[in-house]
Amino acid sequence: MGVRKRLKIGVHCSIRKGHKNALYEAYELGCSCLQMFTHSPRIWKFILPSEKEIEEFKLLRKQLGLSPLAIHTAYLPNPASSIQEIYKKTRDLLLLEFELAEMFSADYLVMHPGSYSEGKKIQDGLRQVVSCIDYCFEKTIAKFGNIHFKLLLENVCGNGRKIGRTFSEIAEIIFRSKFPKKIGICIDTAHAFAFGYNITTEEGISELLYEIKTNIGHKKIMLIHLNDTTSPLGSRIDRHYHIGKGCIGIEGFKTILRYFAEYPLLLETPKETSFDRVSPYDKKNLDMVRNLITHSQ
Question: What CATH number does domain 3-296 carry, 3.30.200.20, 3.20.20.150, 1.10.287.110, 3.30.365.10?
Answer without folding.
Answer: 3.20.20.150
